[in-house]
Design brief:
Blueprint (H helix, E strand, L loop, with lengths): L15 H16 L5 E2 L1 H9 L5 H15 L4 E2 L1 H8 L6 H7 L10 H23 L4 H8 L3 H11 L10
């Protein structure tokens, strides 16, 4: 028997820039995106953060930022934009919705709203990156062309509005 102890990100903060760049390269490669890099300021901000979810949490954050960032250089502002304000992440804001306890929506309503928002943002991002090319978008997403078109019809998304002039 061998026991291996892997250090937490808190113990190896100096490795965070290496991990971020590695995860960014992987995500860009998997999604067929041009390489994206994080500015020194963004890397410093990531090094200062607590990482209770450890490496997996860092990897998920990098993937989201890479997927939704239109720029090749990712800055601190984009990290904050993705995460929202007041310590809540954008994901938390979508889940919790608006209002107080008297206005909580049902689980199914919240799930449907979250999935619709994610799908709409994801498809719009794909079409923007491919200049409205549905075939290429389907290929990048791993969906069939017909499936992507069905999703687009359901959400009222038109590929023409993403084509350059």
């Amino acid at each position: 028997m061998v026991t291996l102890k892997t250090p937490s990100l808190e113990e190896i903060r100096e490795d965070i820039p290496l991990l971020v760049n590695h995860f960014s390269r992987l995500a860009c490669s998997e999604m067929g995106l041009a390489p994206k890099r994080f500015t020194a300021g963004a890397l410093e901000e990531l090094m200062r953060r607590p990482w209770p979810g450890n490496v997996r949490e860092l990897q998920n954050l990098v993937r989201r930022v890479v997927m939704f960032s239109p720029e090749s250089m990712i800055r601190s502002a984009e990290l904050r934009d993705l995460e929202g304000v007041g310590g809540q992440t954008a994901f938390d804001q979508v889940l919790l919705g608006e209002g107080d306890y008297g206005e909580i929506e049902s689980y199914n309503q919240a799930k449907e709203r979250l999935l619709k928002q994610f799908t709409s943002t994801y498809v719009s991002n794909l079409l923007e990156k491919t200049n409205g090319n549905v075939s290429r978008s389907a290929e990048l997403s791993g969906l069939g062309r017909a499936s992507l078109q069905k999703i687009m019809r359901r959400l009222g998304i038109k590929s023409d509005s993403y084509r350059g002039e």
